[in-house]
TrEMBL record:
GO terms for molecular function: electron transfer activity; formate dehydrogenase (quinone) activity. Coiled coil: none annotated. It is a multi-pass membrane protein. The lineage of its organism: Bacteria, Bacillati, Actinomycetota, Actinomycetes, Kitasatosporales. GO terms for cellular component: formate dehydrogenase complex; plasma membrane. Pfam families: Ni_hydr_CYTB. One of its GO terms (biological process) is formate oxidation. The chain crosses the membrane at residues 23-43, 63-81, 123-142, 162-180. This is Cytochrome b/b6 domain-containing protein.
Length: 207
């Protein structure tokens, strides 16, 4: 069913995200941002000296990381959010076509067929979800030292630190791509996008 809404200054648009979905994204982004900033303050000497109060930074980092899965778990109460998780978890033949075009750096919309989410967004969502779970598990072993023997905690610290660096790089790429697509940002901010954008970028999306 098509939901028609008015997008200020544009032709009739379509609803892309519900209010619950937008709040899940915003809250998760805020918590992830706190984790990244506090991690930088803990590991970059210049920032550590500038901020100080290491014990407080450690506690903020720990509690923000522990709370990271909460918005997603709360979002499961939303039917729209559960439906979008289903879209993100399904790959089709058109996703392989999209990835092939991306590897060839073919940016033509006709070469990159996509449903509500394109293949790149699906891969990013799966990766960041898995990385978050690994970060949570390794973080708990580092926080509660009685949970595992020393060799496990040492390995957990290694994985946690290097995965944190990778997460920071991937998030920077995600933010960079969002900055390059104002219509996608509008969809996440207001819940609606223009019909022209939807038909061009997500031609297989059944609205």
């Amino acid at each position: 069913m098509s939901l028609r809404v008015d997008v200020p200054g544009r032709s009739t648009g379509v609803r892309r995200f519900s209010r619950a979905e937008r709040w899940v994204h915003r809250t998760t982004a805020a918590l992830m941002g706190v984790c990244v900033v506090t991690a930088a303050c803990l590991y970059v000497p210049q920032l550590a000296e500038l901020v100080g109060r290491r014990e407080l930074v450690v506690r903020v980092h720990e509690w923000a990381g522990l709370a990271l899965p909460v918005p997603v778990l709360a979002g499961l109460a939303s039917r729209a959010f559960r439906a979008d998780l289903g879209h993100l978890n399904r790959f089709g033949s058109h996703d392989r076509v999209w990835l092939s075009a991306a590897f060839r750096r073919d940016k033509r919309a006709a070469s990159r067929p996509a449903g509500k989410f394109n293949a790149g967004q699906k891969i990013y969502a799966a990766w960041i979800a898995g990385a978050t779970l690994v970060m949570l598990g390794t973080g708990l072993m580092m926080w509660f030292t009685h949970l595992a023997p020393l060799v496990w905690r040492t390995s957990a610290t290694f994985v946690h630190d290097w995965l944190a660096l990778t997460v920071g790089i991937v998030l920077a790429g995600h933010i960079g791509m969002a900055l390059g697509d104002p219509e996608a940002r509008r969809g996440m901010r207001t819940g609606s996008v223009s019909r022209e954008w939807a038909e061009r970028e997500h031609s297989l999306w059944r609205r």
